[in-house]
Amino acid sequence: MSDADTAADAQAPPERPAHVWLTALELLLLGAIWGASFLFMRVAAGHFGAFALVEMRLGLGALVLLPQLWRTWGRISARQWLKLAGIAAVNSAIPFVLFAWAAEGAPAGVGAIANATTVMFTALVALVFYGERISRRRAAGLVAGFVGVIVLASGKMGGVSVWPAALAGTGAALLYGIGANLVRRQLVGLPAGAVAAATLLCSALLTAPFAAATWPQAPIPAGSWLSAVLLGVLCTGFAFVLYYRLIHRIGAPRAATVTYLIPLFGVLWAWLVLGEPVTANMAVAGALILGGVALNQQLGKAGSAGEGSFRRTLRA
Predict the structure, then answer these.
(1) How many Å apart are CA 100 and CA 41, to the nearest integer?
(2) Where in the sequence is the domain holding 150, given as residue range(s)?
(3) Does residue 310 register a pLDDT over 50?
(4) What contacts 16, CB < 8 A, 6 or more positions away?
(5) pLDDT tier at 19 (50, 70, 90 boundaries)?
(6) Distance (Å, rounded) from C-alpha 49 to C-alpha 52?
(7) CA terminus-to-terminus distance, the chain
(8) Which of the four, 2, 155, 218, 252, has the lowest number of CB atoms within 10 Å?
(9) Which residues lie closer than 8 Å to 162 by C-beta, 6 or more apart?
(10) Which of 22-36, 134-148, 207-221 ranks highest by mean pLDDT?
(11) Which of 286, 289, 268 is nearest to 108 (CA)?
């Protein structure tokens, strides 16, 4: 999941000892839920198509988060709504479509691993467009992560190359990185929950014409309907509520450590449920990308190097 970057600078109160176990459990649960999003996309994308599936996801996710938006509706100006619409396209609508398209023709694990590069793209965009300095260690992390993308894109599954899906997932992560920086700088002062709900709502409206034009004519199996509903309600709406709960308790940098769990669960669910194998390319690429994420987050505690994952969040 990325819209959560408005909370990146929030200061969390000291965590009570009794909450330590709860925090660990909720981080594990959130990683499992967001990792499952790639499984649900893999199951449903072939029957819905990318636009229709994304419209289901955005619409249901927005409904779950609507109470957060309703409480602050009057605080959002017309100018901010325009910014929200633009950021929604970059940070939700287009990346979601890219991930759903990738899921039509490649293993779920490919998208889950590519999604982890969001952290590095967030740092790279901040460097290139906003002049934020990065250390040598974080620069090494960027190089390691992008080498991981190359390794991932060079792989094959069942004799078929996965590079189109890997590039689509990486392109979505790049957009998350751009969106994360835009949210941090353009939507200051708005509650993170309201921003997430508003961008989901705007994204659903932007995607609706394309979903209507490409809505499948053939009957959709019950398993795909269930996957689409879970993708919207559980992996988008409920997951964001859980994520903001964690941010409030432990702060954004620590909550962003869920980045490490998403690709692991994404690959695990695909293996357990769909029987998708873990190839050598996926293992090497995952190690390189997560190593790059670790180097970027290690020195990003004072800032927001790790916060882009969430995108992620909405991330897929």
Answers:
(1) 6
(2) 3-213+222-313
(3) no
(4) none
(5) low
(6) 6
(7) 6
(8) 218
(9) 106, 107, 110, 152, 153, 155, 156
(10) 207-221
(11) 268
Q: Which of 60, 311, 291 is CA-nearest to residue 172?
A: 311
Quick check: 139 pLDDT over 90?
Answer: no
Q: What is the dihedral of CA 156, 267, 39, 246, to 10 degrees?
A: -140
Tokens of 62: 């927005």
Number of other CB atoms surrounding residue 9 within 10 Å: 15
Helical (H) or strand (E) element with 44: helix 20-48
Task: Report residue 53's pLDDT band, with 50, 70 and 90 as the boundaries.
Answer: very high
Residue 105 burial (C-beta neighbours within 10 Å; 0-12, 13-18, 19+): middle
* Minimum mean pLDDT range among 30-44, 232-246, 250-264: 250-264
Cα(290)–Cα(112) distance, rounded to whole angstroms? 11
The neighbouring-strand residues paired with 156 are 161
Q: At what angle do helices 20-48 and 94-105 cross, to 10 degrees?
A: 70
- Global pTM exceeds 0.90: no
Percent of the chain whose predicted confidence (pLDDT) is above 70: 86
Does 28 score more than 80 pLDDT?
Answer: yes
- Distance separating alpha carbons of residues 214 and 52, to the nearest angstrom: 7
Return d(Cα 84, Cα 241) in angstroms, integer. 19
Question: CA torsion angle for 3, 182, 142, 289 (degrees, to 10)?
Answer: 20
Q: Which of 271, 263, 268 is nearest to 316 (CA)?
A: 263
Structure tokens belonging to residue 46: 């072939």
Q: Total domain count for the chain?
A: 1
Tokens of 238: 């409920």
Please report the beta strands in 123-213, taking only residues with DSSP state E, as ranges in sequence order.
156-157, 160-161
